[in-house]
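S1.2 Input.
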Amino acid sequence: MRPYIQRIAAASLLLRSSRSLWTTTNYVKPALLYHFPSYFQQQQSSLSNETNSSHSIRNFSTTHSNLHIQTAPATVIDDENEASAKTPRSNAASEKFQFIAYAAWHPKSRQGSNKTTASSKKMPYWKEKHKTGKVDAGEDAFFQTNTPEGLAIGVADGVGGWSLVGVDPALFSWTLMNNAATIAKNEKSIAAQQILDTAFHELRKSGKVAAGSSTACILNLSKITGEMTTCNLGDSAFLLVRDKKIVYESPSQQHYFNCPYQLTVVPDSYPNRDELVTDLPKDADTKNFFLKDGDLILLATDGYFDNMYPEETLEVINESMKNVILDEGNDHELITATIRGLAKSLTDRARRLSLNPKRLSPWAKAAQAHGSNYRGGKVDDITCIVTLVRHKM
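S1.3 Output.
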């Protein structure tokens, strides 16, 4: 299982130099303005114009529910219309697996109160000019797409400290995930790490992101062999649930407490560039699995895992799946609705626990292990993708 001492606080741009931990329950982001030149603010206007023409507008139409939990449409891999859109139609007899996936997300800035104040109406100037991602997931980003051989999914958590110098943290994470989706959709027999490596290379080569950082976790699933390749850089993670038990949880990659591995882009002219955390896709933790019928995979950003213990996650999963009998005669619509509801339930549960000031959350437990008296949940962006594996007989 993941060592709880490795969970981190709200995303911030982190330096390799050490710093003292906070000692109160009120977490304050480190002041990073002194570490960045005015170059970033000068470049933001050109970034805004370029992004407007190359990125989808965020969709706010699904944020009116009381809990503000959004879900993305299910991805069913054996849908021939979807799978054959840009790739030759494969032999259906060789497709032994299918996958049903749903995503749900909750941005930390979106609360359940209808009260508005002058401060709550104020937003960073870059968000007034353009919207970064396909949906409003805060600084998180994600993708789920059919591939020539199956399904690829991924999440990324943009480093929030860049907002202090006028850089939208979501620009990096969404660009990385959009690149990954395009690569996975058009390449055959490509491993998850290759997807991340190529996506990051394209991000840097394009020049669309002048500055930014992000963690990333990508999974690529084969509908022919049932093999899943994984690539995790940083503190996003995935769980593999089989036979009502968690059989694997990806480890959190940390340089030290509160400093996860992260991909970074910084202009070469920046004088202290070497002090920043600049990990590469080759530094990611990679694994291979062979999936079985009924396996369930939860992929999520750290905002989820900092507020939910593994046993709590397993409880929600088993409760949601108890009425679903995975056999050939089972109602496909029921299974799809169950996975969609499960993604929402997990995201909602993590969100509610993040707002509990008295709870000893996984994040609070980790902070206390490092000398802090922090208690309560950790308010953060939360993104989850739930995937069910079906084996065709």
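S1.4 Remarks. The first strand starts at residue 70 and ends at 76.
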